[in-house]
Amino acid sequence: MKKVIDKVLEKYPAKAFKNRKEHIVVKTGENEKPIIQANVRTIPGIITNRGCCYAGCKGVVMGPIKDMLHIVHGPIGCAYYAWGTRRNKAKLEEGGQNFIEYCFSTDMQESDIVFGGVNKLKQAIKEAVEIFHPKAIGIYATCPVGLIGDDINAVAQEARKEYGIDVLAFSCEGYKGVSQSAGHHIANNIILENVIGKGTKEHKKYSIGILGEYNIGGDAWEIERVLNKIGYNVVATLSGDATYESIENAHSADINLVQCHRSINYIAEMIETKYGTPWIKANFIGVTGMVETLRNLAKCFDDPYLYEKTEEVIKEELDEIQGEIDYYKEKLKGKTACLFVGGSRAHHYQILLKDLGVKSILAGYEFGHRDDYEGREVIPTIKKDADSKNIPEITVTMDKDKYRIIIPEDKYEILKQQVPLGDYTGMIKDMEEGSIVVDDLNHHETEMFIKLLNPDMFFSGIKDKYVVQKMGVLSKQLHSYDYTGPYAGFRGALVFAREVAAGVYTPAWRYVTPPWKKEPMLEGTLVGGDK
Ligand code: CFM
Ligand code: HCA
Questions:
Q1: Are strands 457-460 and 136-141 parallel, antiparallel or unpaired?
Q2: Looking at ligand 1, which residue's alpha carbon is closest to its atom 9?
Q3: CA–CA distance, 251 with 229 (Å, rounded to integer)
Q4: Per DSSP, what are the bridge partners of residue 471?
């Protein structure tokens, strides 16, 4: 594997070589816990797959809140970028509102950039209130807004007074921070300070919160179906198919399940500090992940009814899918995969692939931090990056009225030995020896690694899907699920298995000539030959 990496880095100029070398590691016997460089800016000139701060704030964390009206303050392209493509689905609830299919923007023009866009923003809010009567409004600043200095906070404050609804301003200009993860931070801070804790709904038995689950392709619905069947009451999902009111009540959960650690780990921590709600790392992707998560959750409540019901539901769900899953496993056994996605799926989907007998030989995140790769224990050793000054830090203290002791300290310590309470061990730990880990993989490296590793499948996003596919390798989007889904939970695992098997065995590959048949094979290529 070392040779493969040398080959990939070979033609980089010295500065790029030094930089990229630190972002690529191999897990070996001697290097069980490699240190990887992460969450630093991409070198200009390199074609990265990363998104921006605005994408992380508006597109990822806030966008899925369905009855909030999200106004993108900026030129229309930014609004269009975050319009529907992420496939965060939402259903209208009885008596509720759902703006998920809409795209609201101030559509700034050159004259607004020169003379300021504040008046246009005020007008947009006025129209939004008059036409749609939303529960709450979010204003999202894109790059030019920060550059010209429109004061969106002042506009939001004035609008709150004038219309008597929550109007939240997010200074999430695309250039802030390294990538999407800066935007997650900005959104989460504002949600914690202004929304969570305001609700007054009565606490119900077996209440849980799901954090970092965005209902892509209907994942949250599938997860909730199973959790409800066991008897849990999901008070809030942040933020897939969420209502503003459910988020106001998120503090009433007894346990929070953290699915996407990257986008939400600090909010889970802050909810615990402020309201006493403990959190565990969850993984609803893959049968093994789902079963383990359900059992861990039952242990947190330590209630005989839940233990029993959990096993009953697991059995029922497995009975439903096992036969078909085994069929696809037979088809996929021994295949190899590369994964390159955002900040958590490159890990979660390895668990599902393993269930199907597929080996993950390379994986990486676009913008994961070192703890997403190496585990939470490295957080105190991570140097603050130069960009973090762009993102306001907030300090949270205990809310004396709403704080609850849910798991007493002595029990907490015992439980911590059994379940990932307040902990996440990172992606590398679950990878096999000899596998390659690459942070912020770029297009040059994608092509080189494909030529050298010749994987059977490559999981990433729209920016490289067709490049990979034209190389004769099945490419599936783990962001949008190639317009299908859900992939989460038991039934989702089956949908995924069916699609991957169909992709691998499609006769279409006979019509594509892979590069190693057109060009001489690169020296160091591991496996060649037919697909
Ligand atoms: Fe979390 Fe996400 Fe992801 Fe993410 Fe994203 Fe996404 Fe993703 Mo695309 S919140 S880090 S910023 S799991 S939008 S739903 S698919 S890159 S791996
Ligand atoms: C984003 C959203 C994205 C992009 C997906 C892709 C998503 O980062 O702005 O590149 O295919 O999941 O929709 O991550």
A1: unpaired
A2: 263
A3: 23
A4: none
Cis status of the peptide bond prior to 486, with omega within 30 of 0: yes
Told to judge if 404 belongs to the known catalytic residues of this protein, a careful annotator would answer no
- Whether ligand 1 lies within 6 angstroms of the CB of 216 is answered as yes
**What residue ranges do the domains of the chain occupy?**
53-174
Q: Is 184 a catalytic residue?
A: yes
Determine the distance separating the centroid of ligand 2 and the alpha carbon of 274, expressed in angstroms: 32
The residue type at 193: E
Regarding the domain delimited by 53-174, which CATH topology (the fold level of the hierarchy) does it fall under? Rossmann fold (3.40.50)
Q: What is the average pLDDT across 1-8?
A: 90
Q: Judging by DSSP bridges, how do beta strands 24-26 and 436-438 pair with one another?
A: antiparallel
Given strand 207-213, what is the order of strands in its sheet? 233-239, 207-213, 255-258, 279-281
In angstroms, the CA 349 to CA 406 distance is 32
Query: Residue 318 CB: number of other CB atoms within 10 A?
Result: 14
Q: What does the pLDDT look like over 85-117, one tens digit per residue?
A: 999 999 999 999 999 999 999 999 999 999 999
Would you call 211 helix, strand, or coil by DSSP?
A: strand
Q: Which helix or strand (DSSP H or E) is residue 227 part of?
A: helix 219-230
Give the span between the Cα atoms of 213 and 40, in whole angstroms. Answer: 25
Q: How confident is the model at residue 522 (pLDDT cuts 50, 70, 90)?
A: low
DSSP state of 440: S
Residue 139 β-bridge partners: 71, 169
Q: How far apart are alpha carbons 437 and 430 in whole angstroms?
A: 12
Nearest to 286 by CA among 504, 491, 499, 505: 491
Query: Whole-model pTM?
Result: 0.95
